[in-house]
Amino acid sequence: MKQYEHLFRLFHSYLEQYRIGLHNRKPAELYKPEDYILSLGGKRLRPLLALIACDLFDRAPDKALDSALCVELFHNFSLIHDDILDAAPLRRNQATVHTKWNTNIAILSGDVMLVKAFHVLNKYSQEESRELSFIFSNTAIEVCEGQQLDMNFESIDEVTVDQYLHMITLKTAVLLGCSLKMGAINAGAQELDQQNIYEFGKHLGIAFQLLDDVLDAYAGTPEFGKQIGGDIIANKKTYLLLKATELASDRQKKELDHLLKLGKESSQEKIAGIKVLFDELHVKELCIERANKHTSIAINHLKNLPVSEFKKENLRQFALELLKRNV
Amino acid sequence: MKQYEHLFRLFHSYLEQYRIGLHNRKPAELYKPEDYILSLGGKRLRPLLALIACDLFDRAPDKALDSALCVELFHNFSLIHDDILDAAPLRRNQATVHTKWNTNIAILSGDVMLVKAFHVLNKYSQEESRELSFIFSNTAIEVCEGQQLDMNFESIDEVTVDQYLHMITLKTAVLLGCSLKMGAINAGAQELDQQNIYEFGKHLGIAFQLLDDVLDAYAGTPEFGKQIGGDIIANKKTYLLLKATELASDRQKKELDHLLKLGKESSQEKIAGIKVLFDELHVKELCIERANKHTSIAINHLKNLPVSEFKKENLRQFALELLKRNV
Question: Measured between alpha carbons, how far is B39 from B28 in angstroms, rounded to an integer?
Fold first, then answer.
């Protein structure tokens, strides 16, 4: 991501300033968790996309700093609340907010971050702030819907691959599209161009999540405190598992059912067994193929943008690098 | 509240329409709790204030319907999340959302209602929607701060009366002021008038909460599923208790400390004993006096509004009726 290092640093400084502002706010019990979750780092992908889009359409990227802050605050709000929902003890190898403080503080500090995500948009002109608020609130509603669908899937026996793709689109992908669109709005881009950059981000997000499923089963991401096969152990309905269920013969279905019922004490056997089935059914390849399809759609949406080929190529490279870290 | 019956009905129909819209939204697990909490009724005080203010400044009140919906959605979001924080099983004698469904669904359906409170403001013109979003987001931040302070007070030994007044201002009063101000913005009122109507609502809210403290100790509100002395049993730091602590002699302090330590099995003894101390120290009268002070301040803020005396008198009567139901 060398090509956007300066944008990363630009946002980083802005976020640091914002965090310093938090230190004086009272009550501290409300704002310390906000400062804490923002201190845990991460790729800052969403704010970066807002700045990239603003720069892409030839406006100084600092114009989009409050849009960037908005989506980062929202993303971190959703991490705090999702970690409660998942009863997750760790986030980036550090204690989650509800573990470090308690659930009540985690609920409330998440709430205030969600409000502030909207609040920072008031810094823009009347015209921009409503446009931004419109796409952002629509997206935020979709993210909540995606999160609820994800929870629902845990207790539904039959989830189709299409339903899964719809869920990850809402839960993960639309916020990437929204981040880019907000930057494009800040740059004063035409509506058609805003829509194309949104679609680019959305399909990139779908590809990203699909490759994340592959990564979880085949590589693990120890830097995020995840273990290889975490999804498999948890019977998580990923693209891999759903596709395998769809394609399995009767014999394989029986085998899969047996493996899914294995408890924690047989984790290694479970992972190995399920991956044998994945291999037999070539679901890893199918998942990568599907991801590639969405990557192509994403990149196609860049084609007609009225911006320099150099900038387009930079963004294309960035997207490919982002996806490559995943396989 | 006969004088505003038509406004109540106006909002009621609008809310019914909104709720019908929810029935088709998916996933149902996310929107059923929203529909449920909105079905539990209530005074609809905040939306009513938005419509009243719009009407006061001579605009058709339906102009303020989305502001009214905004503050009602926000209020109900805060009820869902507060009920989780308080582990409350009942709300208006019905199961709370986290009891009827579960905590995860209650967190997430509250979140989506908070987002939608902002979302509905996008229906206004660019100018209005930013002005509304500005006062509303500021207020929403304050409400979260007030809620956190309220939680903090549970575990702090020394809370002053001033700190308590600050907390109830944030937690309860500013949203009443905000509701009125939003209606005034919809009516195109001057900034000074917006500010006066805001202060009217804020001080009305403080008076309302203080009289609620009196009510809890001296009358109870069985229609809301509360018992007489509920605050006393829970050692809740109300104005009454804090003022009593401030004024108590050494003998009375010792007696109070003893009573506060009594367990559930001695509830009746506790209530009776603490109320003897309250009587000795005249804290009921002091609390009513303080409430009256805020009522006067509130009504003073109506004086210079450039609206008909008839409308002012209606609003004054409404405020007094609202407070009267409390003592």
Answer: 16
pTM here?
0.96
Does B32 touch chain A if contact means CB atoms closer than 8 Å?
no
Q: Does A88 touch chain B (CB under 8 A)?
A: no
Contacts of A114 in chain B (CB under 8 A): 111, 114-115
Tens-level pLDDT at each residue, chain B (327 residues)? 688 999 999 999 999 999 999 999 999 999 999 999 999 988 999 999 999 999 999 999 999 999 999 999 999 999 999 999 999 999 999 999 999 999 999 999 999 999 999 999 999 999 999 999 999 999 999 999 999 999 999 999 899 999 999 999 999 999 999 999 999 999 999 999 999 999 999 999 999 999 999 999 998 555 555 678 889 999 999 999 999 999 999 999 999 999 999 988 999 999 999 999 999 999 999 999 999 999 999 999 999 999 999 999 999 999 999 998 754
Pair B94, A126: CB distance under 8 Å = no
Instruction: List b or e across A93-103, with b for residues whose CB sees 16 or more CB atoms inside 10 angstroms.
Output: ebebbbbbbeb
CB pairs < 8 Å spanning A and B: 118
Partner residue facing B114 (CB), from A103, A114, A121: A114
Q: Please state the domain extents for chain B.
A: 1-126, 190-327
| CA dist list (Å): B170 to A268, B1, B140, B163, B286 | 53, 26, 9, 11, 22
Indicate yes or no: CB of A118 within 8 angstroms of CB of B122: no
Opening angle at CA B139, ends B45 and B52, nearest 5? 30
- A29 contacts in B (CB within 8 Å)? 148, 151-152
CB-neighbour burial class of residue B24 (10 A; exposed 0-12, middle 13-18, buried 19+): exposed
- Put simply, whether B272 touches A (Cβ < 8 Å) is no
Gap between the Cα atoms of B96 and B98, Å rounded: 6
- The structure tokens 């409390």 sit at B326
Q: B170 at the A interface (CB within 8 A)?
A: no
Same CATH fold assignment for domains B1-126 and B190-327: yes
Overall fold of domain B190-327: Farnesyl Diphosphate Synthase (1.10.600)
Superfamily of domain B1-126: Farnesyl Diphosphate Synthase (1.10.600.10)
